[in-house]
Amino acid sequence: MQESLWHKDESVPLVDHTVGSLLAARAGEHADAPALVGNAYRDGSQRRLTYGELYAEARQVARALLRLAEPGEFVALWAQNIVEWPIIQYGAALAGVYLVALNPVLRKNDLSYALNHSESVVLVHADRSREYDMASVVASVRDECPKLRHVISLSDWDSWLDSGDEHEPLSDCDTDSPVMLQYTSGTTGKPKGVLLRHRSLVNVAKLTMDTAEVQPGAVTVNPLPMFHTAACVIGTLGPLWLGGCEILIERFEPSAVLDVLRTERADVLFYVPTVLGSLIETAKKTGEPAPRLTTVMGGAAKVPRPMIEAAETLFGASVHNLFGQTELAPVLTMTRRGDTRDDQVNTVGRPLPQVDCKIIDPATGQIQPLGVRGEICARGYQQLVEYLHDPDATARTVDAEGWVHTGDLGSMDERGMITLGGRIKDLIIRGGENIAPAEIEACLLNHEAVAEVSVIAVPDDKWGETVGAIVRLRDRPRPGLRDELDAVCRARLAAYKIPQHWLFADELPTTPTGKVQKFKLVDAVMRGALTQLP
Fold it and tell me: For residues 265 and 150, what is the distance between their CA atoms, to the nearest angstrom?
């Protein structure tokens, strides 16, 4: 292996299931086994459903939906992490409609855009999430959405379930049929609608669980936002594949989640680094024995060495770092049990089975030699159907040979291990030199004072762009810290890569899945809204 090309591992088979047929199979095999635990929308009470109960209620949802929509139409779901969310997800799959997963914090303009862009004919919504009056927002946008025929409040859950015809036949779609529309997180601006198929979601969930060696019947805790693929695919369909139980967390509060991990005797925790970091800090402060887990898996940002070591020590778990994107449903690579600590910290592991992967020169399209950074491309079962109503964007992302161009930079070694190098669009071009922010961020995370860091391009009259580093500190800034960080960089990086701008922020703006929104940081720097490091 001399070039950065990974040929798919075909030793692990794909499965031929839709989301609905997999649920039906598990209900037939494990009717009385626990399947789902979560808070009901109406009164916040906890509901615990077996596979038999979950399948029965999902079929009620399917038949209620089929009174309002035809198979192949779009149905939007706008709600927080409540137990009804995965039930509706399963019901939509059984009905053959395409679920549009919406962020519960969307404001009026964004909600209107998503409903119109997707041409949703039904909206199922919560009336309120925390202090947010979602019902009023729905009322204000309804007249702006000409395709929207029906609006269903989750306050009417019981009566809506009873509205379906129990004799209505359910859709018999195939595994290549679309099942879900996901809007990209928006780290660069306007979201695109990513259409995903049954086959992709089921097999990504299966292969992620199998690669992590999670055992059948595992109890999994899912605190991630359900409108994102990490939660509704890995966090929901993952335990479904295993015949396990999903514990859905409505609101993330570290002490409460630690209690859930203990009382439910959980095996698996899904995380983004901010979630995992908060749980570790809280567990250390309480003085109580930390819950024991077998597996901790997640991603969205680089996981520092101390966090991985603390998770393994406190929870006794194997930590798996996942990499992917919505367009890949959403996992491409992951670290395995037995990987070295350096591989856990510095790489995102090897590709999942049944997927080809390569690193190319973004300018020429040629495959890069091993160890040379380029654009990560993938081809396999998990890739998107299309960007809805955007054939040009689809053609730019999926080439004529079926390769998905991720827009992420990385390099590959002889084992197929991928080391990330940031986003192509994040590249800083200083006087003609290309600088990858991820390299500088990885360097700065080695300093004990740095909790998080984001490196951005700052416009400059002389150089075109210069390097700016925005850090979130573990403690208050102290005199001389800027010089310390500068010295860390100078010891490891070429001179042209050293940040010229050093600023700190109490929080870095992120998407709900933990990805830093660099365009917001650039705007804050240009407005002078951030404070210089001393």
Answer: 41
Give pTM, 2 decimals: 0.86
Residue with tokens 């887990």: 293
Query: Among residues 510, 528, 508, 526, which one has the least CA distance to residue 465?
Result: 526
User: Whose CA is closest to 147, among 389, 435, 327?
Assistant: 389
What does the block give as tokens for 450? 């740095």
User: Kind and range of the H or E element at 273?
Assistant: helix 273-286
pLDDT, tens digit (0-9, with 9 covering 90-100), for 480-493: 999 999 999 999 88
Q: DSSP labels for 135-196?
A: HHHHHHHGGG-TT--EEEEGGGHHHHHTTS-TTPPPP---TTSEEEEEE---SSSS--EEEE
Which residue is it, tokens 């890995």?
234
Convert the pLDDT of each residue in 66-115 to its tens digit: 999 999 999 999 999 999 999 999 999 999 999 999 999 888 988 999 99
Could you give the domains of the chain?
Answer: 1-13+196-388+403-424 (3.40.50.12780), 19-30+38-173 (3.40.50.12780), 427-532 (3.30.300.30)
